[in-house]
Amino acid sequence: MRKDLSILGSTGSIGKNAVRIAAMFPDRFRVRALAAKDSLDILSEQISAVRPDVAVVIDQDHARALEKMLPPGCGTDILFGDAGYEAAATAAKVRQVVIAMVGAAGLKPTLAAIEAGKDVALANKETLVMAGAVVMQRAAACGVAILPIDSEHSAVFQCLAGHGRKYLDRVILTASGGPFFTRPKEQFATVTVQDALRHPNWSMGPKITIDSATLMNKGLEVIEARWLFDLAAEQIEVLVHPQSVVHSMVSFRDGAVLAQLGIPDMTGAIAYALSHPDRLDLAQPAPDFAAIGSLTFEAPDLEKFPCLAMAFNAVHTGGTLPAVLNAANEVAVEAFLENRLAFTDIPVVIGRVMASHQTLDAPTLEDILHADSWARQTVTRDILQSADCR
To answer: If you average pLDDT over every residue of the chain, what do you get?
Structure first.
């Protein structure tokens, strides 16, 4: 039976791949809704390709501009803003919602989709970082499946398939190490935006690429894994694996370890979330192990990459602290991308905000959103004050 999809964040790297995969298998998928922020050229092309019922953009001005770009009678309703994103997430015919939005913006649409009884294919790790307990509890109550799209969490999900959860010992998330894994820490002060955006293995959006350079991305994935797989913080390990062939591993109580391997490409993980429990014929190559020669693993240097250490601190502490970590990081990364903050100052401002936060245990959604707002305001003020002092 064909599955009707809504793809939120359709113009980003994950979203574009999701649209492409759906179009490759028209007998399996029908895209009913697309949502983006302001990338109108890409969105208009996607609308022409898959003819969704609904398309959503950030505001009314962008909605009007998009309408002018589309041919008369195209049949797609153009919506905008929070109400539009919620409509895309809850559309009556949709069975599965792909959440590929960047940052905290993905939380509310994810909850709306869950409340509407839609299965969720989740690429937005910030949703579970901020409100993992709330999201997973609501998903369980609504009988909704949360299927991971991140390659690391997809790998763990695949390794656990058919194995008793009670036998799980720990999860090992792999990290490429980013562009600066071999660069001495003393040279980080000269890192430019262009340097940080040159990821050695993966093609991703700017925010996640910077997060990979600081290893914050892996820290956020640690927190996400804690909720996706109902783990204690002590059950999650990170290893740097520069070849990015082993996407993650699962260790069981008897010492057996299962790993999921593949080329460093998100297509397989996205397709598996869409088609689970089936596998699609993607005509994608397996790794050429003879050419690769060797696979290496190394413990991360938490002094060199303090963002990962702060994420482990946040997952151990819990409560509202992960939401504060995430919000502070989003603001700091944006400031770095705009050349308003040095690369080495990203963990500094995040650490200051975390240290000044009074963590609430067992927070409500309102508590989490308040902590998110407080952290954003605090980091913004911190960055402005630092700029004034220079």
So the answer is: 94
Statement: the pTM of the whole predicted model exceeds 0.85: yes
CA distances in angstroms from 154 to 32, 57, 266, listed in the order given? 24, 29, 10
* Residues across the chain: 390
State which H helix or E strand residue 239 sits in. Answer: strand 236-240
Q: Which two tokens stand for residue 117?
A: 């009884």
| Backbone torsions φ then ψ of 39, nearest 5 degrees | -85, 80
pLDDT < 70 stretches in the chain: 202-203, 387-390
Exposure string (b/e) for 248-257, b if CB count within 10 Å is 16 or more? bbbbbeeeee
Sign for the pseudo-dihedral over CA of 306, 311, 316, 321: positive
Q: Which stretches does DSSP call E strand in 75-207?
A: 77-80, 96-99, 119-122, 146-148, 168-175
Q: How far apart are CA 379 and CA 390, in angstroms?
A: 17
Count Cβ atoms within 10 A of the Cβ of residue 31 and give its class: 0-12 exposed, 13-18 middle, 19 or more buried: buried
